[in-house]
Amino acid sequence: MSRIGKKPVKLPAGVKASLKDRTITVEGKLGKLEWAFREEVDVKIDDAAKEVSVNSGAETRLAKALWGLTRAVIQNMVKGVSEGYEIKLEIVGVGYLAALQGKVLQLRVGFANEIQKPIPDGVVVTCPDQTHIVVKGIDKQKVGQFAAEVRAVRKPEPYKGKGIRYEGEVVRRKAGKAMTK
User: Fold this and answer.
1) Longest Cα pair distance anywhere in the chain, in angstroms?
2) pTM of the full structure
3) For position 107, what pLDDT does the model report?
4) What is the pLDDT of residues 33-89, one digit of tens each?
């Protein structure tokens, strides 16, 4: 039995949820999100209690797995339209920098050419300075995916710590070959 799936999702003030066939729509002050869920789970909206509940339709292994997943995705949608998501990245390295050019993020991170990353719809990217990137949006998956793609351009390396990292990420440093002598 899913411990996550059993808990209903509370709808905060200003957030509305509606159900049509197998699609749930969540609207809030920041925007609107839709998601089509699988037929193995049942979703019910209780307007009086202002909550959304998810029930497992069958006792199969797949249905049990999708039960908790569906509830977690709906919770992320509710949080996204009410508060939004934000991931901060920092660039470490001499001469490494980021800049915005319209809907394209330009990265200079030690390669011969500048890396151009097009910004997807639904994601807002800002650069407060040349060594910091802020990725915001209402869809947790899109925000996390774009931040991971930007980080993957130049992951932090273990010897000098240069690269793109999440804010607060700890990079384990290696001693290098000078320490062997």
Assistant:
1) 72
2) 0.90
3) 96
4) 999 999 899 999 998 889 999 998 788 889 888 999 999 999 999 999 999 999 999
- Report, in angstroms and rounded to the nearest whole number, the Rg of the chain calculated over CA atoms: 21
Cα 99 from Cα 84, distance rounded (Å): 23
Residue 163: both structure tokens together: 């690269």
Confidence of residue 1 (pLDDT cuts 50, 70, 90): low
Check if the beta carbon of residue 95 is closer than 8 Å to that of residue 110. yes
Task: Spell out the SS3 assignment of the chain.
Answer: CCHHHHCCEECCCCCEEEEECCEEEEECCCCEEEEECCCCEEEEEECCCCEEEEEECCCCHHHHHHHHHHHHHHHHHHHHHHCCEEEEEEEECCCCEEEEECCEEEEECCCCCCEEEECCCCEEEEEEECCEEEEEECCHHHHHHHHHHHHHHCCCCCCCCCEEEECCCCCCCCCCHHHHC
Q: How many CB atoms lie within 10 A of CB 15?
A: 19
